[in-house]
Amino acid sequence: MFETMVAFLMPEHMAGQSFEPPRGKTGYARVINPNRRPFRTQDGLMCILPYTGDQWLRFFEAIGRGELGENPEYATPAGRSRNYDTLYAIIEEAALTKTNAQWTELLLEKDILFGEVNSVDQLFDDPHLQARKMYTVHAHPTEGDLRMIGFPVNTRSDATRLRLLAQRLEEHSVGVSLGLGFSRAEVDAMLADGVLKATD
């Protein structure tokens, strides 16, 4: 997981460290800007991320601030790179004018990047996770029905399918011992001596 996160996050931040010897520091200034964060709406939190020039222009129009798009400090990539604190403050102010549902509808219509911030409880009802069958219910022989978290990568291989439920104490001790290379006679001897206990 650590290596995956490094591979996912570091390409944006290599900057001067991409060269050997290094030609500068790490860090993509826009991404590590302290004001780049989820914004509070009327009923929750929302990530609102206009990115391209066209997206910023559509965002300005959507919040009734179309005149901002005529300002070279906001209309060009170079200008925006100097003014992200101000731009994020504009988003922060605008975010409070709508609910998450209203923002979702508007940002989809304007084709602007966004993401609603879910609470942990809301993840159970997330449409994407439901469509991917991320939570499945399995009947456990002693504990009843258990909701399990699915594997995040779906393949046609059985390697990503749930094959065993949580084990009961000593349930698979014989099978595990045999799998570790003990002979059947050695396993029987350990059972007889009480060194090994089994319910399987």
Quick gist of this model?
It contains ten helices and five strands; from the N terminus they run ααββαααααβαββαα. With 200 residues, the protein is of the alpha+beta class. The protein is elongated and about 85 Å long.
Q: In the residues, how many domains can be counted? A: 3
Distance N terminus to C terminus? 34 Å
Number of helices: 10
Given as residue ranges, the uncertain stretches (5+ residues, pLDDT < 50) are none
In percent, how helical is the residue content? 25-40%
Integer average pLDDT: 90
Structural class based on helices, strands and sheet pairing: alpha+beta
- Assigned CATH architecture of the largest domain: 2-Layer Sandwich
SSE order: HHEEHHHHHEHEEHH
CATH fold type of the largest domain: formyl-coa transferase, domain 3
Using the alpha-carbon principal axes, give the shape: elongated
The percent range for strand residues is 5-15%
**Going by CATH, what is the homologous superfamily of the largest domain?**
formyl-coa transferase, domain 3
Oligomer: single chain
Number of DSSP-assigned strands? 5
The Rg value, from CA coordinates, equals 27 Å
Q: For the record, what CATH class of the largest domain applies?
A: Alpha Beta
Q: What spatial order of strands do you see in the largest sheet?
A: 1-2-3
Largest sheet: 3 strands, antiparallel
Organism: Sulfitobacter brevis
Keywords: Transferase
GO molecular function: CoA-transferase activity
Pfam families: CoA_transf_3
